[in-house]
Write a structure and sequence with these properties.
The structure holds two protein chains of two kinds.
Chain A lengths: L1 E12 L2 E12 L3 E5 L6 H9 L6 E9 L2 E2 L5 H7 L4 E4 L3 H4 L6 H12 L4 H14 L5 H4 L9 H13 L5 E5 L7 H18 L2 E6 L2 H7 L2 E6 L2 E7 H6 L4 H11 L13 E2 L39 E2 L15 E2 L3
Parallel strand pairs in A: 3-8, 3-9, 6-7, 7-8
Antiparallel strand pairs in A: 1-2, 1-4, 4-5, 9-10, 10-12, 11-13
Helix pairs in contact in A: 4-5, 4-7, 5-7, 7-8
Chain B lengths: L1 H10 L9 H36 L4 H6 L5 H11 L5 H13 L13 H36 L4 H15 L2 H15 L15 H35 L2 H9 L3 H38 L5 H10 L3 H29 L8
Helix pairs in contact in B: 2-13, 6-7, 6-9, 6-11, 6-12, 7-9, 8-9, 8-11, 9-11, 10-11, 11-12, 11-13, 12-13
The chains are: A alpha/beta, B mainly alpha.
Chain lengths: 329, 342
């Protein structure tokens, strides 16, 4: 059953496109990863789904969630959905919590935002949530202020807030990027376990392929405000068709044991992500792509169902990528 | 020390920190005690400075009191009578001892005790400053919030520009304008003078309205800028986005998280502005010929009534220092991040 259906989602600010028509679906209970470099539009996409895009961002297209059109809803109408049916885990646990409010209260607020429950009921729900996200002494730890918790603990509080009203979809925007590597794994495992227990769907946004591939069943690859490739995690990892996906893969695969690069060399994608107005006409990856030809001046459509990719000259499945170029070569 | 405790315990995975509520309360008491100590020291320093500066000034008060026609013998006699021949440290101890037991001494000029006169002046200046502060807040909070909410629209920009104009108007100019328009042209409120509280509370309040507006408007305009900045900061904060992601509508999220968070920077400025209000009161009292502390200070300076000047300056210093103490304590209550022990 399709929970979320995004069609032709365009977001513009000051006449510059941030998202250029994005299409994807998330089924109920499905775990989907959204990956791409910084500036590819991942965070804007998530915020737009929540109706929390920054001021001055114009949204067009269609976002259907649980059969309801979200584009064009008023703030008040959207508020009834946010936190209740669709919740978000943010990137920066350091700043995502109010520094002057006890963390327990911040979770209780989330419960009471949608549920008409008494103070004591909200409180017992809050304590239950805190112990579920891994606080052994919720009674006491609920009285702490954010600065008295570690980064990992704060992110657990943010996750508890997201879970407060059993949402059908959780958007997690780089939930582990700001954390220590050891804590990252714990928080990721927690998120995955809770989503499974609740039966919620998860849209996990990350620049880190390893993170996404360990959690998600399906992967969307975003570049320059467009989806360039979408498929099952296996398809994307084993047989990427879009040159950008292949390049992204080689940057993280190159660090592994089978790396053919000289020591001290990290694989990179040549060039850099253009600024907002600086993307080329036609295929957005044009200019950084080694397979570019004249036809790429025309934007390629995202073809086929199942494994989809937007490229005129896709890689053949199984062909080794020649894209990762070491720095300094 | 507490800061170190808190951070190490927070780093240990998911275990309760050492700083239990009891320990925090104890640390807070210790902080209050230490802060009181520094307040007393500051006041001591201020008193020495005030005393020293006023006694370094040339000219003998006895000579001033008796006039140019006085004989040296009578001047010497009065000097001894006033205790001005004693060594300065002894004079200082005598003065400060009097202040501590609330004996402010007698005026050099009238020979009358200073305390009742200063008390009467305080009954004018105290309410004037308080009303000025209230008026300033009544202007600053709504305009600050409104110009923050509308910062992308023309109305917000106009509001911000208006406060800029408010800051640029000196309070005495505003006072004179108000006298001309409200008091002289419209005859709504008295232009000058003061009806004592004992005679008519309403009359006393009426005589304070225009001075309080002149005093409060400028401070309110300055404060409005800080309120605007503070609210904008909250509006852009990640935690506000978290609150909206919980499903709180924008307005409710701002009230829930904005009041406390915005009050931290506003509180600081408010503490500083109180000194500005007291200084402004001296000028405004002159414009509206109010018999307040400012007028008393000016006449005492003109008369070389050193002991009265000393007392008034010390009083003002005490008010400022104590205000700073209160602001500091309020801070610790509002913002738990300020480690009370550190």
């Amino acid at each position: 059953m399709t929970l979320l259906r995004v069609r032709g989602l365009r977001v513009e600010t000051a006449g510059l496109p941030v998202l250029r028509g994005v299409d994807f679906e998330v089924a109920a209970g499905e775990r989907v990863g959204l990956i791409g470099e910084s500036g590819s539009g991942k965070t804007v996409a998530a915020l737009t789904l929540m109706g929390l895009q920054p001021e001055g961002f114009a949204v067009r297209g269609s976002v259907e969630f649980e059969g309801r059109q979200l584009v064009g809803l008023s703030d008040r109408e959207f508020s009834a959905i946010r936190g209740a049916r669709m919740a978000m885990v943010f990137q920066e646990p350091m700043t995502a919590l109010d520094p002057l409010m006890r963390v327990g209260q911040q979770i209780t607020d989330a419960v009471r935002a949608h549920r008409r429950v008494s103070r004591s009921e909200a409180r017992s729900r809050m304590l239950e949530l805190m112990s579920r996200v891994g606080f052994p002494l919720p009674e006491e730890q609920a009285r702490r202020f954010p600065h008295q918790l570690s980064g990992g603990q704060r992110q657990r509080v943010v996750i508890a807030i997201a879970l407060a009203c059993d949402p059908a979809l959780i958007l997690a925007d780089e939930p582990t990027t700001a954390l220590d590597v050891t804590v990252q794994a714990q928080v990721l495992a927690l998120l995955q376990r809770l989503v499974a227990e609740e039966g919620s769907a998860l849209l996990l946004i990350s620049h880190d392929l390893a993170v996404v591939s360990s959690v998600c069943q399906r992967v969307l690859v975003m570049y320059g405000g467009t989806l360039v490739e979408a498929g099952s995690t296996e398809e994307i990892l084993e047989a990427p068709r879009h040159p950008y996906t292949a390049a992204l893969l080689s940057t993280s695969a190159g660090i592994g044991a089978e790396s053919r690069l000289a020591a001290g060399r990290l694989p990179t994608i040549p060039g850099s992500v253009p600024s907002l107005g600086g993307f080329p006409e036609g295929c957005v990856f044009r200019g950084r792509c080694p397979r570019e030809q004249a036809r790429c001046q025309e934007a390629p459509p995202l073809v086929a169902d199942g494994h989809r990719f937007a490229c005129w000259f896709p890689l053949q499945p199984g062909a080794p990528s020649k894209l990762g170029t070491p720095i300094g070569r | 020390m507490e800061a170190v405790d808190a951070s190490t315990s927070a780093a240990s995975p998911l275990l309760p920190a050492e700083d239990s509520p009891d320990r925090r309360d104890l640390a807070f008491l210790r902080f209050v005690a230490r802060r009181l100590g520094t307040t007393v020291l500051t006041l001591f320093g201020a008193s020495v400075l005030v005393f020293a500066v006023l006694n370094i000034l040339p000219g003998s008060p006895a000579q001033v009191i008796l006039g140019t026609q006085a004989t040296p013998a009578s001047v010497r006699e009065l000097t001894i009578k006033l205790g001005l021949n004693q060594p300065l440290p002894l004079q200082y101890v005598h003065w400060i001892g009097g202040l501590l037991s609330l004996h402010l001494g007698n005026s050099y000029i009238s020979g009358q005790p200073i305390a009742p006169e200063l008390g009467a002046a305080l009954a004018v200046t105290g309410p004037l400053v308080a009303l000025g502060l209230l008026f300033g807040l009544a202007i600053a909070v709504p305009t600050g919030i409104l110009s923050a909410l509308r910062h992308r629209r023309a109305s917000g920009t106009w509001l911000a520009a208006a406060t800029q104009v408010g800051i640029a108007i000196p309070n005495f100019v505003l006072g004179i304008l108000l006298i001309i328009v409200v008091a002289v042209d419209w005859r709504l409120l008295p232009a000058s003078g003061f009806i004592p509280w004992s005679q008519s509370v309403g009359g006393a309040l009426r005589s304070l309205v225009l001075p309080a507006i002149s005093l409060g408007l400028v401070e309110g305009a300055i404060l409005s800028r800080y309120v605007r900045t503070a609210i904008l900061g909250v509006m852009r904060a990640d935690y506000l986005r978290t609150a909206r992601a919980k499903g709180l509508p924008a307005g409710r999220a701002l009230v829930r998280h904005g009041v406390r968070n915005a009050s931290v920077p506003v509180l600081t400025v408010l503490g500083l502005e109180l000194s500005g209000l007291i200084i402004g009161a001296v000028v405004i009292e002159a414009v509206f010929t109010l018999p307040g502390v400012g007028s008393l200070l000016l006449s005492s300076v003109a008369n070389r009534d050193l002991i009265t000047v000393q007392d008034i300056v010390m009083l003002v210093a005490t008010v400022v220092v104590v205000t700073n103490l209160l602001v500091d304590l309020l801070y610790r209550i509002v913002d738990p991040r300020l480690e009370v022990g550190g």
